[in-house]
Amino acid sequence: MNHRDFWPKDAVPPNGGRRPPNKKKGLYFDGKNLGHRGNPRLLVEISQYEVEPNWGTRYPCKVEDLESYRNRPPRTRKVPISGEYATRMLVDWLGNSIVTGSKEHKAVHNLANGMQLEEWGPDLVIKAFDDLDILFFRGILATRTQLGWADPNYILASGQDPEGIFGLTECLWYGRCHISLNAIGIFLHTRNPYTHMWATLLHEMVHAYFFVLCEHDRPTRRDYYMGEDWVEGGHGEHFRRVLTAVDKRFRKYFNMGAIARWEADLKLKNGRCGVAG
Length: 277
What we know:
Elements: H1 40-46, H2 67-70, H3 83-94, H4 102-114, H5 123-127, H6 129-136, E1 145-149, H7 152-157, E2 167-172, E3 176-181, H8 183-188, H9 193-214, H10 222-226, H11 228-231, H12 237-254, E4 275-276
Parallel strand pairs: 1-3, 2-4
Antiparallel strand pairs: 2-3
């Protein structure tokens, strides 16, 4: 897909936006059909439901915390920085093994509790997006990124195979981007959908980080700002360094990897995530 100065029509909301059936406040799980040992096809189905703070996965969340899901990010005109500077800035920050800020401590607490839930749904990672952003990306993405579970037709319209990719990140103009997670790929075509769900989102957030900070509103400049990362399908040296730093912190705090099996060889030039720009 090409760069766009408008929000994709099919991406508001980025998933199907269906109202949940028989909605009850704070609960839709019966403890049998959902969760990381649950029914993958049911997870695909409920990924298309609207995300609401008082329904679904019990993750601490308010309406304003779902800005990345509900609202279109504002245009933000800014001077982009080089991929090398963006990489060094974040890798050095992630390299600090001690979390010091109160927001970061709260994010660690929320995520640790959320990952211990036995009953969860696809809305878990939507609700956890802001905490992931605070803990791994310095809070840079929250107001500039829209996130959601994509309708399979949206993945098809992008020219991708719904069974062949796990996520899609689109770079938009003016320092904005759009992350679509693919429920079919994650829940039906991976051995461990739960860990793959987290790994895929963090992978796409790395793409979003570079799109937000390094993309210019003139396509002819993008090779300068993105460097080899753009040439390598978004998976160049800058991407590898940041994802490795994110993976290290993710393992430290949550005993879970942010690098999926297919990413083990980070020299892959065009992985199955699906980057569009």
